[in-house]
Structure prediction request, 188 residues.
Amino acid sequence: MKVMGVAFSARKDGNCARILRFCLRKFEEKGHETEMVEAYDLEIRPCSRCEYECFTGNCPISDDVPALYGKAMNADVLIFAVPTYGGHASGLYRAFSERGQAVFKSYEEWEAFKGKLNFVIIGNTSSGGDMTLHEVLYGLTGGESWPEAVLLSSNEYGGGSLRGGLVEHPEVRARLERFVGRILEKMG
Prediction:
């Protein structure tokens, strides 16, 4: 089984990346192949300046989004780490997500992709972390599958969100191990 993690943070090697590395190591310990991508390293542009060419599968925007979707579609399990910025999911995640309308050729293809998704949301509830969790899950309503998700708040563990050390807290590690365990259980 191939597990792919994508950190949708505008910050290189922050909480999202470190948390994903921890999760991916847990999958590797169980013998699974893993890959990690930091959106920081990619060009991800939002929908703009078009005439809805996406409805014909011909998005006029030239960036890394189609390649990232291609990699994601070839994985068996996806874990998206999404930080909270300004009370919302990061712009990198939202741009990637909205651009999916040019990728999926059928409802069945979308459902197959959606069935692979799992989320780690990083954000304090006082800053909208709970709303970010709702925001990413809201786009996935309906259908047969529901992703595993965990919300991690640095305030809850006495840390600051900018230091990137959230994964060092023992309870965060324990929660992430349970998160990985639930994904493995679902995958059979």
Remarks:
- The radius of gyration is 16 Å.
- The chain has one domain: 2-187.
- The helical segments are 15-29, 65-73, 91-99, 107-114, 129-138, 170-187.
- The first strand starts at residue 2 and ends at 7.
